[in-house]
Design brief:
The protein has about 120 residues and is mostly beta strands. About 10% of the residues lie in helices and about 40% in strands. The chain has one domain: Nuclear Transport Factor 2, Chain: A (Roll), CATH 3.10.450. The protein has one helix and five strands; from the N terminus they run H-E-E-E-E-E.
């Protein structure tokens, strides 16, 4: 899935971070679920129901950026009297393409690289 960002970006411009952050926040609902990894490492019943919170875009070099974010999780099982919650921090790298498209590298989340 590709997302065309509404702003115009210079590909290798360190000043893009604020505009990228604003554009990602505006279109967050289109990609946030893909950034939440499989939560089985916490518990097979662990879930996230409120998406992610975008924290910061960091310029790495050239057209490469990193998006830092966090997500909440919960495990509720009344039969075992289990009610736990937590928050995890994560980051994903992405490249900014000339047409204002971004391509996230989801391989660290256990997924293949994907375009958004």
């Amino acid at each position: 899935m590709k997302i065309k960002l509404d702003a115009i970006f210079k590909i290798e411009d360190k000043t893009n971070v604020e505009k990228l952050m604003a554009a990602l926040v505006a279109q967050q609902a289109e990609f946030e679920r893909q950034l939440i990894p499989n939560l089985d490492y916490i518990d097979p019943r662990a879930m996230n129901d409120n998406g992610i919170t975008l924290q910061e875009v960091v310029h790495i070099q050239g057209n490469q950026y990193a998006l830092q974010y966090r997500y909440d999780w919960f495990v509720f099982s009344p039969c075992t009297n289990l009610d736990e919650t937590g928050t995890h921090q994560n980051k994903v790298t992405f490249s900014l393409k000339p047409a204002g498209e971004i391509c996230f590298d989801l391989s660290a989340l256990g997924n293949e690289a994907s375009s958004f």
